[in-house]
């Protein structure tokens, strides 16, 4: 049978249905943008005649990584406000955003930079939340990336929208505009309970149900957010806008907003009871351990969440709080943090970290029937990681361990999304990298002129 592509691997890690499985000397057969077969390479050569045979018999082939939480437009501000607590950080970033993120080109150029970085690091899908969601969508389409675009909501006016009604009107227009784009998916993305009022939350609860669009928000990121909301300390900018004296998660639960269509980013500060609520309601968590560690927000109790049966996905957060959109590094960080929070090295083995960075992300955003694993019928969203060139990857006993604990994003050699190579042999196929960097440099110069560094 003639097919489009055979990728012949040393190892294939399908991730689902069983995340512990590693298939030696297997091939992935791609036809019409989908995975047609995953089978031993020897059988593949008898059964299929591919138009293109990609020999990766010294590499590991796995599903593309899914960055479950990022703000792509912010990539241009990478390194502008480091080593500060979250609220101080926000107050350094917001004026710059007010001056430049009010322009759609800034957001699109930032998203292009983010896309180029993520593709180079094996990310095939990202869940985005930023001003001008159409800029993120356009950049993703240009890059050939899958994206879950957040229809953002904030109580503050911005260059993008003048009021909450305007955020909604523009967001729904964007959603309609891109509805036939196969790589573009959506969430409603109210920024946080301390920046979005209860009336909007109730509106989004109804819209989420009506349109089957998940809600994605920042939740319980800092201790301040919980303690100030519990006593309604309005002098604290992290205090939720609800009039209920309780934790924001409890408030959202009372409002009936928590469910399988809800993704909470961070969820660092959770009581045992709140973890049970998340499990009961089928809430998803977008865990961002590097961002949390950099802002000293604390460590999410991943072991408890996993044991309660909560679906935990993995995200980098923005280039301002990480400072890289490196999902391979994030997997290692997640595993190390989980082990240390639990005081138990058996917590979150390498294959579990990979599961969080792939199928769990797809599940969180309701696209696990499309992507997130190397299963027959799914979109061919996959990557290969070279384990032969760098001595730091030698030798390989367990390919899951090699990917999570030893490899770096520099070792990613190919990235395929919907059957199309967007990176091949470490070279971008869809983006002009020189142009992407030149655009980012233009904005860096402008920001430095307007906001000189001391
Ligand atoms: Zn975030
Ligand atoms: Zn393994």
Automatic annotation (TrEMBL):
Could you tell me which Gene3D superfamilies the record lists for this protein? Metal-dependent hydrolases (3.20.20.140), Urease, subunit C, domain 1 (2.30.40.10)
Q: Which UniProt keywords apply?
A: Hydrolase, Metal-binding, Zinc
Q: Does the keyword Hydrolase apply?
A: yes
Boundaries of every Amidohydrolase-related domain copy? 60-422
Pfam families linked? Amidohydro_1 (PF01979)
Q: Which InterPro entries match?
A: Amidohydro-rel (IPR006680), Metal-dep_hydrolase_composite (IPR011059), Metal_Hydrolase (IPR032466), MTA/SAH_deaminase (IPR050287)
- Recorded GO terms, molecular function? deaminase activity; hydrolase activity, acting on carbon-nitrogen (but not peptide) bonds, in cyclic amidines; metal ion binding
The reply to whether Chaperone figures as a keyword in the UniProt entry is no
Protein name in UniProt: 5-methylthioadenosine/S-adenosylhomocysteine deaminase
- Species name for this entry? Gracilariopsis chorda
């Amino acid at each position: 049978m003639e097919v489009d592509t055979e990728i012949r691997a040393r190892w294939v890690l399908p991730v689902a249905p069983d995340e512990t499985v590693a298939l030696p000397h297997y091939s992935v057969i791609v036809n019409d943008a989908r995975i047609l077969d995953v089978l031993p390479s020897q059988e593949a050569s008898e059964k299929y005649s591919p138009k293109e045979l990609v020999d990766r018999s010294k590499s590991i082939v796995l599903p593309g990584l899914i960055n479950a939480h990022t703000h792509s437009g912010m990539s241009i501000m990478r390194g502008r406000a480091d080593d500060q607590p979250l609220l101080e950080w926000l107050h350094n970033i917001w004026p710059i955003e007010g001056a430049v993120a009010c322009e759609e080109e800034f957001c699109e150029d930032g998203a292009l930079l983010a896309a180029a970085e993520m593709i180079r690091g094996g990310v095939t899908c990202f869940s985005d939340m930023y001003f001008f969601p159409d800029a993120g969508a356009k950049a993703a389409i240009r890059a050939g990336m899958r994206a879950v675009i957040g229809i953002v909501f904030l109580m503050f006016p911005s260059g993008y929208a003048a009021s909450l009604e305007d955020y909604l009107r523009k967001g729904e227009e964007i959603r309609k505009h891109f509805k036939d784009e196969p790589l573009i998916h959506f969430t409603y993305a109210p920024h946080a309970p301390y920046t979005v009022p209860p009336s909007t939350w109730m509106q989004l609860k109804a819209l989420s149900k009506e349109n089957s669009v998940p809600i994605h928000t920042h939740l319980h990121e800092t201790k301040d957010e919980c303690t100030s909301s519990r006593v309604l300390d309005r002098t604290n900018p992290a205090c939720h806008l609800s009039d209920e004296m309780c934790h924001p998660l409890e408030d959202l639960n009372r409002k009936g907003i928590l469910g399988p269509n809800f993704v909470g980013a961070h969820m660092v500060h959770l009581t045992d009871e709140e973890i049970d609520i998340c499990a009961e309601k089928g809430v998803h968590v977008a865990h961002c351990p590097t961002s949390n560690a950099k802002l000293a927000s604390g460590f999410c109790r991943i072991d408890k969440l996993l044991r309660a049966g909560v679906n935990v996905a993995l995200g980098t957060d923005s280039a301002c709080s990480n400072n890289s959109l490196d999902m391979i590094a994030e997997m290692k960080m997640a595993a190390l943090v989980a082990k240390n929070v639990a005081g138990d090295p058996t917590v979150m083995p390498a294959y579990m970290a990979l599961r969080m960075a792939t199928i769990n992300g797809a599940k969180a955003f309701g696209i696990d029937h499309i992507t997130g694993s190397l299963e027959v019928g799914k979109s061919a969203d996959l990557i290969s990681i070279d384990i032969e060139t760098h001595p730091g990857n030698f030798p390989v006993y367990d390919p899951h361990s090699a990917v999570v604990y030893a490899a770096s994003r520099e070792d990613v050699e190919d990235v395929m999304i919907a059957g199309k190579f967007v990176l091949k042999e470490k070279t971008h196929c869809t983006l002009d990298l020189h142009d992407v960097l030149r655009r980012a440099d233009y904005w860096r110069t402008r920001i430095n002129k307007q906001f000189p560094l001391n």
